[in-house]
Amino acid sequence: QQQVKQSPQSLIVQKGGIPIINCAYENTAFDYFPWYQQFPGKGPALLIAIRPDVSEKKEGRFTISFNKSAKQFSLHIMDSQPGDSATYFCAASSAGGTSYGKLTFGQGTILTVHP
Amino acid sequence: DSGVTQTPKHLITATGQRVTLRCSPRSGDLSVYWYQQSLDQGLQFLIQYYNGEERAKGNILERFSAQQFPDLHSELNLSSLELGDSALYFCASSSGRGRNQPQHFGDGTRLSIL
Questions:
Q1: Within 13 Å, how many C-alpha atoms sit on residue A45's CB side?
Q2: Chain A CB contacts of B50 below 8 Å
């Protein structure tokens, strides 16, 4: 019940394309859903996050869509650039109970953007 | 730069040994989280401290322990090391005030067990 399932495992797009990464969760206590970007040799960097009271959030070229009834959320990257090539992780957490905001991560998506 | 500092960057040691990983959180952050990243398990939560007190525990082995000191830096101690402990260990920090505050990650310590 604590799992977050992420797909696809890898994704290749051309520059300017719109890669979409999907995540699904089971635990209805999750109430915070961040996305992280990780480059080789670096730690995950927070990109954008959403709470379940909104269905969409946009920051720059990154958009999260959230479907509470389906327990799914996704990341869209508009006008993708070669510099966006990285591994992307979705995550979820709950502030309640004994969770104290610990993050449960998806397995990651390796994105390659060709010039 | 996330503001979270982890040392050392790389650690190579042998089975059966003990190591200590260090983390300095962002200025003002009271919460520290430790995560392990491996190819087969992905990113897994280990343990969280808030202002010196243990707050939450994940799938942390009994051979592993952690603490957070009065100056808020944290250390993760790994003992009786096994080959399977080879992984990247990340520390993250958050303000700890309010619900689900953003967690900011350091660049990790890569632990290799020979």
A1: 14
A2: 100
